[in-house]
Design a protein that fits this description.
The protein has a two-stranded antiparallel sheet with strand order 1-2. It is mainly alpha-helical.
Length: 125
């Protein structure tokens, strides 16, 4: 599958679909009403575009159309992380970690988590 960059709105819809699928438009409208206030038409148009991008599929075999994610959450997160890293930190993980840690004191648990991530990466080499 090709790498797909999601808009903020697409992330909102995809997170709902990843958390629970299938969902109908009515269920999506209800789930997003307090956060976005999007109308049924807005969500329908977004879903139509997402189907065209092949990140969502629709099953129309039942009374209400149901929507499912095609794009996997991990794949979307990887792509988003790579885009962010390239755009903001010129691809440098070290610069990103340095920036994130310089603005906040890390807890012992967070430091241990970072060490474990590095140890795991070293073992995969």
């Amino acid at each position: 599958m090709k790498q797909t960059v999601l808009s903020d709105g697409e992330w909102k819809l995809m997170n709902l679909l990843w958390d629970h699928s299938p969902r109908t438009i009515g269920e999506l409208v209800e789930a997003l009403k307090d956060d976005t206030g999007w109308s049924k038409t807005t969500i329908f148009v977004m879903l139509k575009r997402m189907i065209e991008k092949e990140i969502v599929r629709m099953d129309g075999s039942k009374r209400c159309q149901e929507y499912y994610p095609v794009l996997e959450r991990e794949s979307a997160a990887r792509c988003e992380t790579q885009n962010f890293l390239s755009k903001v930190y010129q691809g440098s993980i070290g610069m990103m970690v340095s920036s994130m840690t310089s603005r906040k004191e890390l807890s012992r648990e967070e430091i241990e988590e970072l060490y474990q991530i590095i140890r795991d990466a070293r073992e995969k080499e």
